[in-house]
Structure formats: structure tokens, C-alpha cells
């Protein structure tokens, strides 16, 4: 088992070397105000046999869980994914029967809408064949917490005697995102957890990390982000310590190319549904200026993860006037179920994912700041709701995670070079939709409490529907009988008292 | 009045006005489509033209989602794949279909209802100058095309051009299934005045065999054969070309679809209720599965037998009215299906002869829709849960109003009006 722990200190002044001490095979930090990434790599042979056998069925598996609580994303942890559970995977050619759904439900919660791996997952459209590592299948679910995963790790994976393992697992509770990766080439399972700050940010991290056994290695870095020497690179300075090997922190300074960049301007975005939502809710994204592209080649995009109860009609997005009226440029990609007619309960797929390019108003691109204050830019995405099952209530509330918003820019370097970044985070759903020489500059969400919007869907209220069946059948039968009666006896001579009968016109 | 009278005395003026109305709407549609994100063109038209584009690329029209029609329609719209204004070719075709249907209505009224030219033109105008009809076809809905096929069928039957009538029926059913209901009334009607028919003086109970022999006439056999051969031939050709996807989308889909989305049908709420997975616990008899029974009994068996021999066009109106009112799905485009028979029925109807009954019927029919639309708007755009009781009650009310109107139509027919 290998571990790598990185503390990223945003304010260089907050860090003094005396906040950490190395003794024997352990390192202690005290009141360290920093973001933290904890990466654990476990060899396949170290896992329980059951899990090992299941993993063997897949070529690669990538799980991304993102908390719905907004968080700061300092470089190099800049990349963003919509809140919830995302799963991307490629089965071995023969193994499409891979029981991934049961495993997901076992680890993340039985309420996941994942009945069959074959039908619940959608095919991710890979526009760039060069992105050969993009997995073929995609899944998403609303999941506000990973307590179920924590319990699974504690019960099934931790050695019964190891309290450090169990404590480590429960710390996942405060992560902003947790990634789990497996692929056949590395033959290892990696868990990567990101904490934007210590559980109590005012106190900071106070903990001691010690080597659990001689066979494992732990590398600890305490880094500070330095100004960019090269526009495509990010640079860090700080200390590295390999437990059991280094007797004191070793100073370090390095720079690396990266795939994901922070935005240099103050631009943020907000998402909400326009009211009233009806059965055709419109998602509104509000971006604060300035909307100047970070570079000439950059295009502003949003990547939406739409649960099955919501969908967009791809055909309406072909009309330039329609797109322009919503401040959109194009629908570049749409994968998943977009059946316009199906109610939610017959859709077995998790939903659909859409990549939209946003139109930047010309006034903001020319950066005319004469008035001093530019208006917010509003982008709207018209969506449709599926019918939801009848229930003992008038409305059912359903979630939509905030989409991510980013500039996609041409990069001088290719994806292979980017992967040399030790903090590179891959398989986020949208990179495969771009060419390999693409870098992403992320617009951060300006969150309220949670980065999930809820929409109230009107449903058939079962409490009032008691009479529907008998009422409908009764009225139809009565109407049928009335028509039969008219067919048999209606208009009979004498059987009808109405005076206006013009008997002269009668044929019979 | 004098101007109106002069207008209806000239077929040139009526047909010119009908053409002008459609030209204006077509041009208006082009302008709105070019400048507004809200399109005049019907969504279905984009489905047809996309399917035509797939055909032009050597692919199946069913490569387009929600294309649920015969490939013939996409082939018919092949010119819409050509550049420029050719995109509107289909709308022009549908509009010409409208006018042709109106012209045949005029001919039928003149020749078979023995109307004066002015009166025939007035009643054809119910179709020709009807803004709803003109709008539907110029927006690119194929219902108008169906209108011309069905009216041509009626004209061919009345003119006793049996082979043509058989072919048209086969074609119409291939195109949109529901015209099969007309087979019953036409076959029943064909017994009328047939040369083989025995003199009426024959008395006493006839044996079943002789009744059967009387029923099986040359015309009826001919009509049945032509329609079945045309229907089968079209299907075989389409199946050869497009395989299972053709059967799947143009036939099976319409048979198995669950129309849970709100529409005018009285069954709508019940279908949503019983197809919803949360409702398995409740005791349902799934009576909606039997919904086809009253619908088909009325439109295919009882109405044709009781009325077809009296007045074929009005019987077809009653059949269509019953079919649409008792259907499991009902949208406003379906109203066009029976509207095309109104010029034949209205001249002698209570609805026109008694202003009170006619006026109330029209007002109730419109009010029924307004009530439903108001509930539908609350649901669709304001998100209010109006499924029960509002939407359900208004669809039931509309159904009751329709039943009343159907009763008037049938009574009129029985009275020989």
C-alpha cells in the first residue's frame, strides 16, 4: 500500500517549518491551514478476494464523487465535476455482464437507480479518438453523502484490528471530492480524497501520520503555489518527506504543465431554475463579468449532467435563432436517453450528459469597461421533465446538480505530457469530448448552500385519484350505452317527440 | 350579403381565396421561421424532412427518432432535401392536397348531394376557407395529406370506381391505420343499389346461406381484394426496403404505446394512473385494456350497419367522431379527421337547422376544449398538479359533450336528414 499526502498552503505566510516535525517513521503537523489531498494506492493482491474477482472483469473503472457543498479549488486541485456520483468504466471485451450495478449499490447505497449495468449506463461519445483512455460507459446519480461508502470500507476493507484505517475512512465524510480509479494495466486501486480545509478551518490540520507497516510507503508534501513563470505551467515550492526514509523535510521546488487552470479573473457563475418551472423548466446560468477569454483560442462551455427525469430536445438546439435567444452557440455533444415520449419509470438509463458552448456577448469580449460595471450574462438551457410516478402527494421534488462551466483552450502540449503532472485528474466526463491538445480554465461556482437545484414536478395525486378508474369506466360505459340507444331507437317515428322532424324528407 | 352571395357563386373566387389564404400563411411562416426562435413550422415537419434527408443519404427514414410513419411520406418529401426554398415543398404539397380535397368535396356535393353550385361552394368552404385546416397544412402537418386521400376514397366509392376506391383505402390504412374503419361502412354501403341485389318483394325468412350469398357481391369482393392487395403490396415493398424498423415504427408502436402525457382523451388520467409503477398495490381491473371495445364496436360495427346505407359520407363522419372521442389518445389534430366530412353532413343537420342546438353544440365543444386547455396550461406551464380533479374532469366533460354531438349526428342520420 502506498500513500501520498499533499497539504497545499494557500497563504505562504501561514506556513512555518516548525508547524511540522518528523520523528522516527511519523510526521506531525500542527495548526496547518491548508487544503489536503490524500491518495492511497492499493495493489490488487491486497484486496479481499471477492472484490478482486469483480475488478478483474473490467479494463478500467473511474468513480468520481463530488460533494454538493461549494468549495474552493486552489491549484493544482482546480478541476471541477458536477456534484453527485459519477462512474466511468470500460468492461473487458467479453465481460459486459460485469456486475457493476450490484457493487455500486452495495458500496454507495441501495437507492441508486442502477438495475442493470447494460441498461443503466450510457455510451459516452468519444469525439477525440486520440483520447484513447476515455472509458466507454458512463453513469451518474444524485448522492449527497458517501457515508455508505465509509461503512463499506470500514466493514469490508479495513483489517478488523486497524483503527487508523477506520478513522481514515470516516474522515472521507468531510471530503469535497473522492476519486476511485482502477485499471488493468496498473493492477492497483487508487483512492484519492480532497479536503479543501481542515474539519475546523480556524484551527487547521493537527495530526500525526505514521507508517502502518514496513511494507507500505507514505510520501508527504507541504506545498505552496508560486506565481506562474510560464503561462502553461504551474509552480510549487515546499517540503517533501518520505516516512521512514527522510529524517527531516526536504525542501523542493518544481513546475509542471497542467490540464486544469484556475481563472485569473473574478468571474463566477450561479445556476437556478426560472419560475414557474412547469413541465418545461429552464435552467438559468448567471455569469458575472468580465467574460474575457483567457486566451484567443478559448471557448466558454458548460457540461450538464441531467438525471433521467430531465432531458433536452437535441432537435431544437439545431436552430441558430433558438440557440442565440438562449445565449448559446452550439450543442456539441449529447449522450444518453433523450426519448421525448418516455415517462421516467420506463427509462432505465441514468440520464444524459450534454456539452454546450456558450455565446459570449460581444460587449464583454471587447472588454469595454467605460461604464465601469458590466451586466451579468445570462445563459438559459430549456429542459423538459418526464412524467414521474403517481404518488401520495401533488408534487415530487427532483434534483439537478449544477453544471460545470469552463473555458476550453488550445494547448501547446498534448495529453501525454499533461499526464506527467503528479496531480493530474483525468476522466471527468467532458475532456474526452475535446481534442487532446486542450486545456481547461475553470469558472468557479458562486454557491449558496448547495450546488444542487431542485424542481417540483407535478404528479398525479393518488389521494385524490380514487374515483378516476370507476369514474372513467362509468362515464365511458354510460356514453356507449347512450349511443347504442340512439342507434337502436333514436329518430324512430313517433318515438321522438320533437316537432322539427321533417317527415317529408324521410326516405323510409 | 350581395357580395358574399356573388363570391360563393363563382368557384374561381372561392378557390382563389383558398389558395391565397394558404399562400399568405406559407409566406408568413417563412418570415416567422427566419426571424423568430419560436417556429411557425410544426415539429413533425422537421421529423419528416430529417427522415427525407436520411433517405437522400441512402439511409433508413427510421434513423430519425420519432419518425413513426410510412417511408412513403419521407420519399414524397424528397425534394425538401434540395437547397433553398425546396425545404417548403412539403408544406406546398400538403396545401395543394387541402385544395384538392376541397375540390373533390365540391364535386361530391354537386353530383351526389345534388346541390346548387353556390350551396356546394358554401359548404366546401367549411374546409377550403377554414383557417384551422389551412394552418395545419401550411405548418407542415401531414394530416392534410390524409384528408385528400380519404376524400378521394369517398369520391371513388360514390362514383362506383371500385378498383380505385380499394386501392385508396389500402393506401390510406398503410398511411395512417385509422381509415380501416371506413372499410366497414363502404362494404355495407356497396350493397345499396347493387345490380345483383334481389328485388325487395322477396318475403319470408331467408336462410343464412342466401343472406350470405346476397352479401357477397361482385363489387364487395372487388373492393376487398383491391384494398387488401394494395395494403399488403405497400407493406411488402416497405418491409423489403426497410425491414423490421418499418413494422416497428409505423404499426407496432401505435399499438403498444402508452399515452400517459396529458391529452383530450377521457382515458388519459386512467392510463397515467395504471401505467405508473407506484400504483401496483391498488386493486385495478385494468379496464383500460378493454378501451378498444366500445370504440371499435361503435365505429366499425354498429354505426356502419345502422347508418351506412342511408348516407355514406355522414356515416363516415359519425364513425370518425366515435373513433376519435373514444380513442385512448386525442389531440386537436385528430379533430381534422372528422372535420373533413362536415360539408356533407351539415347541410341537412339539426346543428344548422336549429340555431339553438347548433349554437349550443358549437359553444359547448369549444368550452370543453377551453376548460381542458386552461387546466393543461396550469399543469404544463405553471407546474400545478391539476391531473385530478381538474384535467380529468375536463377531459370527461369534453367526452360527454362529444358523445352528445355524436348522438345528434346519429339521430339526424336515422331521421334521414
From TrEMBL, chain A:
Record bears the keyword Ubl conjugation: no
Pathway it works in: Glycolipid biosynthesis; glycosylphosphatidylinositol-anchor biosynthesis
Record keywords, A-Z: Endoplasmic reticulum, Glycoprotein, GPI-anchor biosynthesis, Membrane, Transmembrane, Transmembrane helix
Gene Ontology molecular functions: mannosyltransferase activity
Ranges annotated as spanning the membrane: 467-489
GO biological process, one term: GPI anchor biosynthetic process
Chief localization: endoplasmic reticulum
Membrane topology, from the record: Single-pass membrane protein; Single-pass type III membrane protein
Keyword Amino-acid biosynthesis attributed: no
Example of a GO cellular component annotation carried by this entry: endoplasmic reticulum membrane
Superkingdom: Eukaryota
Compartments it resides in: Endoplasmic reticulum membrane
Function statement: Required for proper folding and/or the stability of a subset of proteins in the endoplasmic reticulum. Component of glycosylphosphatidylinositol-mannosyltransferase 1 which transfers the first of the 4 mannoses in the GPI-anchor precursors during GPI-anchor biosynthesis. Probably acts by stabilizing the mannosyltransferase GPI14.
Family: Belongs to the PIGX family.
Record protein name field: Protein PBN1
Automatic annotation (TrEMBL), chain B:
GO MF entry, a single one: alpha-1,4-mannosyltransferase activity
Cellular component terms per the entry's GO annotation: endoplasmic reticulum membrane; glycosylphosphatidylinositol-mannosyltransferase I complex
E.C. designation(s): 2.4.1.-
Pfam families tied to this protein: Mannosyl_trans
Glycosyltransferase keyword on record: yes
Top-level taxonomic group: Eukaryota
Membrane topology of the entry: Multi-pass membrane protein
InterPro entries per record: PIG-M
Keywords carried by this UniProt record: Endoplasmic reticulum, Glycosyltransferase, GPI-anchor biosynthesis, Membrane, Transferase, Transmembrane, Transmembrane helix
UniProt entry tagged with the keyword Ion transport: no
Location in or out of the cell: Endoplasmic reticulum membrane
Pathway linked to the protein: Glycolipid biosynthesis; glycosylphosphatidylinositol-anchor biosynthesis
Biological role stated in the UniProt entry: Mannosyltransferase involved in glycosylphosphatidylinositol-anchor biosynthesis. Transfers the first alpha-1,4-mannose to GlcN-acyl-PI during GPI precursor assembly. Required for cell wall integrity.
Family per similarity comment: Belongs to the PIGM family.
Name assigned to this protein: GPI mannosyltransferase 1
